[in-house]
Amino acid sequence: MKTVKADILAFGAHADDIEIGMGGTAAKYAAVGKTVVFCDLTKAELSSNGTVTSRAAEARQAAEILGVQERVTLDLPDRGLFLTAEAVSKVAEVIRRYQPTVVFAPYEQDRHPDHGACARLVKEAFFSAGIRKYETSGKEEAHKAKQLYFYMINGFHRPDFCVDIGEVITRKQEGLSAYRSQFELGEGSVDTPLTSGYVETVIARDRMMGKEVGRMFAEGFLTSAPLLLEWDLIGD
């Protein structure tokens, strides 16, 4: 079966990372017909709550809610995202397979080491995927995406640009709510930073980011290179 060509390819270390940082942006672009693909580097097998099976089911549900066309999970180890040639090759192969226009990854400055490690892996793979003689285990040809952007998971950083998500903020909340094992205390679960009002904190950050740009809600991003503006310098 032929793989779809992605407008947006977003990477996360664990299922729910992408939804936290850019679930609204994904939903917004999916709603206007853009092809959005998520790739989780690990199965989050070391999560304090939930299981690999339950996390996978929640990830599928969240992707469906947001309108994500495909979601893939690599077999890289949770808490073992090291900058190795094998790991870079696996991520580069995903980039080549989906031939995205733009790529997203977590911002490197984050309290969780796996998020920073994911950022470093994707940066290396983003570059390597465009080298014609760079080899991966797949047969896909080299592909150079236009831009690599970084979304925030934990923390609040000054963004290089923002995306207005006011019209899809409810969709983002619904996508996050799919991760009941992570954001809700249930039978057999333990209290973690994620179960203590974490989703409310994320939405509050989106509201604060929106105020920075004169909107109700926005998601902020950082860039790996300067943005080129053509005709949108002064807006609509």
Structure overview:
- This is Lmbe-related protein.
- It holds the Pfam family PIG-L.
- This protein is an alpha/beta fold and 236 residues long.
- It has one domain (8-223): LmbE-like (Rossmann fold, 3-Layer(aba) Sandwich), CATH 3.40.50.10320.
- The protein contains seven helices and seven strands; from the N terminus they run βαβαβαβαββαααβ.
- Strands 3-2-1-4-5-7-6 form a seven-stranded mixed sheet, with helices on both faces.
- The termini are far apart.
Strands in their spatial order, largest beta sheet: 3-2-1-4-5-7-6
* Global shape: globular
Strand content: 5-15%
**What's the end-to-end separation, in Å?**
41 Å
- How many distinct folded domains? 1
User: What is the typical, i.e. mean, pLDDT?
Assistant: 94
CATH topology: Rossmann fold
Main beta-sheet annotation: 7 strands, mixed
Figure out the total of helices: 7
The appropriate CATH architecture is: 3-Layer(aba) Sandwich
Described by its quaternary structure, the protein is single chain
Output the helix-strand order: EHEHEHEHEEHHHE
Name of the level-1 CATH class? Alpha Beta
Q: Superfamily at the CATH H level?
A: LmbE-like
Structural class: alpha/beta
Helical fraction equals: 25-40%
**Total beta-strand segments:** 7
Pick out the low-confidence regions.
Answer: none
Radius of gyration: 17 Å
